[in-house]
UniProtKB/TrEMBL annotation:
GO MF terms held by the record: tRNA (cytidine-5-)-methyltransferase activity; tRNA binding
UniProt keyword Nucleus, yes or no: yes
Subcellular location, record wording: Nucleus; Secreted, Extracellular exosome
Taxonomic lineage: Eukaryota, Metazoa, Chordata, Craniata, Vertebrata
Class of the enzyme per the UniProt entry, highest EC level: transferase
Name of this protein: tRNA (cytosine(34)-C(5))-methyltransferase
EC number per UniProt: 2.1.1.203
One matching Pfam family: Methyltr_RsmB-F
Amino acid sequence: GWAGGYPEIVKENELFERYYRELGIVPAGEWDAFMAALREPLPATLRITGYRSHAKEILHCLKEKYFRELQDLEVDGQKVEMPQSLSWYPEELAWHTNLSRKILRKSPQLEKFHQFLVSETECGNISRQEAVSMIPPLLLNVNPHHKVLDMCAAPGSKTAQLIEMLHADMNVPFPKGFVIANDVDNKRCYLLVHQAKRLNSPCIMVVNHDASSIPNLQIDVDGRKEVLFYDRILCDVPCSGDGTMRKNIDVWKKWTTQNSLQLHGLQLRIATRGVEQLAEGGRMVYSTCSLNPIENEAVIASLLEKSQGALELADVSSELPGLKRMPGITKWKVMLKDGQWFEDWKDVPSNRQTQIRPTMFPVKDEEKLQAMNLERCLRILPHHQNTGGFFVAVLIKKSPMPWNKRQPKVHQKLPQRTGDTEVTAANSDNGSECVTEEPRLAENEESKKIQELQNSDTEQSKKEGVCGPPPSKKMKLFGFKEDPFVFLPEDDPLFLPIQKFYALDPSFPKMNLLTRTQEGKKRQLYMVSKELRNVLLNNSEKMKVINTGIKVWSRNSDGEQFGCAFRLAQEGIYTLYPFIHARIINVCIEDVKILLTQENPFLSKFSSETQKKVKDMAMGSIVLKYDPDPEKPDDLQCPIVLCGWQGKTSLRAFVPKNERLHYLRMMGVEVFKAKRKEEESESKTEEEVQHRLAQTEEGMDVEDKEHDLVTKMEAETGEESSHSPVESSAMEVENKMEDLDQSSKNANSHVSQESKDTDTSNVKD
């Protein structure tokens, strides 16, 4: 039958069944249950962000309010079961429900719950993540001091988990560790940035490289340059994805063994590059959302064999109690897409030896096989706990890889840096280089020696028929031209008024402040941790950085007359707050409600205590702090820090819309109806504006018109369009619409219905 204009996908694939039956990855007697589970839609799962101080409040809100409202509810004839916490996830922070994502999005009865999920996800307080996808970061055992590399990070849900682990102690604004999140796809890198930004961490950097040839980075250690080795590496490689059939139903139609055969080589190269960059004693988690041993055990076995004892599989059977898992397998066969089986490399005809490689077969030597402990890998089957299919292996590095053993470390004294220190994202468009001067000669001679050693090792490994390290590739640069990262120099006059205005603590690390502009006015100030600054300064030429740093201050032209041109930014306030000693107003819970529900409330609406504090304070940017009262357990029991602005007669909060809704929910304020009214007024405003725009005279070309409107919007909203104060209220939208309408009349232009839709939706966004 046809549903929604598309033919319904039949959830059958004879080759898939034949292949996995033969391999025996499913225990005897469970095949029918396994196939039945694959044909069922995947249940919706969510994870509460663990490091936020208000994680307990969100959990309380979910259990006491939203989950209770789901009780005894029927949707499309299906009874909604009460959501259950995942037994193996710590502290009840992950939940699953029998609702599919489709039902959750479409059903009117669930609109309130769905809106809650969308809004809280946008704030970074919860993550809608598949259950099995949560496993690899948990098995990495990340501590706040660890240097972490996520090799194939997009879309970023696992990266978010890693960032949370770095910030396990909320009282430490700058953990010593960091996460470098990489992806080969430039566009997916921006998705990754969007995910990571929700967590407001100064310890994350997004880079754009081919994971199989990601460059060695260097850091300054006591004036010497040393190669950066990571304590933890997440290697979640591209895969055929047959474990995702429950949500990606296209896999049913497209599945063939060819996918695995084509990906095996890439997976092995990425994993090899990962273990090369792992520190001794470090831990790397290799994972796929595939059930196929060619992509799983075959890669691990090949990696262990060529490591010659440098790597071992960790026994994680006691970790994550409650997680049902199957051990890794030690025997498997290789099948072509025409159904032809091969048990040994020597049986493969020469015309098939480009498709099938020796590393795809299990190790024949029983002693070697036993020493590998492949049963320590774990495979998650869909029918065991109503999840997707997944594979995970945890590797420990005991010594350097055999081909790296003779490689000397690069020891090199660094010159003292002075003045404006600039780091530029490597980019082929402008041939940009690092401005800081470094002695190149010694390094070049040393790197030549290293290259010769690598080449001789590679030649040796070729003779032995063992796949050595991946070949060094020239980095391909593509995508958008990135702005430079310019650190503020010690004596920058920009900083002194900021330091004075906010009475910043002497311990404030001003050397970690950066901007994204070389010339002209600095509009935004960002902050990174000391360790990421070290990475940025020493690797600008070999690394394409997409994004790093958390916004802490934004230029405000009105502020200059009050003594400081920069106002505080909400996304960086939790990082900055420990260093600020002035312009802090402690407010009660009723004041917080007023700040978050009213556009620009008069001072007279606030409590007398707040009014007294504000009276003696100059106009400008302020910090609004709420501390919970333990004697009032019914009130919100987690602290809140908000950025605000004190005017002559009013006080307002500068908080993004979804974050505002989040705090109101936590305080028990009903935001559902208010949001509906707001949306209705916004859509009404849109219709009026479109009607007015339609009456404008003809004249200018449509493209010129669109360009003018976009230019005007950018000039008005600047870089802060997505975080305007008390965002997207109907009044603001209407004002912007009127401005745009006026500009369109002045330009005597005619806009088609299509371009009007585009313009108005852009403004709303």
